[in-house]
Write a structure and sequence with these properties.
Largest sheet: 7 strands, mixed
Strand content: 25-35%
Low-confidence stretches: none
Shape: globular
Number of helices: 8
Helix content: 25-40%
Length: 326
């Protein structure tokens, strides 16, 4: 027998960009490790510099970066982090996206438009990513945009357990803000003991982004606490109009539950003024002090991400975390 035989040990290393370091630190802590020390700063003209302060050769690298505002800077920083790992001989690079930027631009509505979500996936792959891990993609088809393994994590267990523990004693209904998210609402209903389903029939003008009209409530919501579920809250126009429509339809109360709290522009004022008694979100995106308000409850997504990272590192099953549905 010729050659050299050596049994190597796997080395998990966790890296974080500057978009949401608190979440990355919590994930690393739950994994029993620390974030790799990283130097990152901006040049005067806006260019980004990244360098790791430890050897990453042969590592199983997990690069955590939420595509938070300013979103283009967050994406570019992550691409540079991936490129640095590839050039420093990391063995496998897994991109962890608590929030996937440009996910709403997943198809062409009209001619001469880009499919931006696909472009982001292509850039991640070109930079050197081997695997993608994301939380609650806007549409499941985005998994097919990335040429490699994709782990689609769902915040549903975290959010639904909280709602069940706090509101399970009341008569509930699960409401989708539009017909397109009925499948997610069905999963919510199952976890909330078979609560009845409803949805908001709405219309959208493709020439006016972030604006919808809630036309009517479809389903039986009278006398029930309605759990209004969505993947993200951006300007909060859709979700607050839906909450008000539910109250007008006779609901006894409304609870909003969403994974990604983008909270752009007038979102906070709208949520404060709307009929919802509580707004439940996760920390996939950082929520600054200026966007905190009394009705807002933020749950940590770090336990879910850390469990998924451990399963990937140990060649286990991410799907098993979601009863075979991931």
């Amino acid at each position: 027998m010729t050659g050299i035989v050596k049994t190597t040990e796997k080395n998990l290393m966790v890296f974080s960009g500057r978009a949401n370091p608190e979440l990355a630190e919590e994930v690393a802590s739950l994994l029993g490790t620390q974030l790799v020390p990283t130097t990152a700063y901006d040049f005067a003209n806006g260019e980004i510099y990244v360098r790791y302060q430890e050897s990453v050769r042969g590592s199983d690298a997990f690069v955590i970066q939420s595509h938070a505002t300013p979103i283009n800077q967050a994406i570019m920083e992550q691409l540079l982090m991936i490129d640095a790992l590839k050039r420093a001989s990391a063995k496998r690079i897994t991109v962890v996206l608590p929030f996937y930027g440009y996910a709403r631009q997943d198809k062409k509505h009209r001619g001469r438009e880009p499919i931006s979500a696909r472009l982001v996936a292509d850039m991640l792959k070109t930079a050197g990513a081997n695997r993608l891990m994301a939380v609650d993609l806007h549409t499941a088809q985005i998994q097919g945009f990335f040429d490699g393994p994709v782990d689609h994590l769902m915040a549903l267990p975290i959010l639904s357990d909280y709602v069940r523990d706090k509101y399970g004693h009341e008569s509930l209904a699960v409401v989708s803000p539009d017909a397109g998210r009925i499948k997610v609402a069905e999963q919510w209903s199952e976890r909330l003991g078979g609560a009845p389903l409803a949805f908001i029939h709405k219309t959208r003008d493709i020439d006016r982004p972030n604006e919808t009209v809630a036309n009517r409530v479809v389903g039986e919501v009278e006398g029930r606490v309605c759990v209004l579920v969505d993947d993200m809250i951006d300007t909060a126009g859709t979700i607050t109009k839906a909450a008000d429509a539910l109250m007008e339809a006779g609901a006894s109360g409304v609870v909003i539950a969403a994974t990604h709290a983008i909270l752009s522009g007038p979102a906070v004022d709208r949520l404060k003024a709307c009929a919802a008694r509580e707004v439940i979100v996760t920390n996939t995106l950082p929520i600054g002090d200026d966007r905190q308000f009394d009705k807002l409850t933020t749950l940590s997504i770090a336990p879910l991400i850390s469990r998924a990272v451990r399963e990937v590192f140990e060649d286990g099953s991410v799907t098993s975390l979601f009863d075979g549905r991931a």
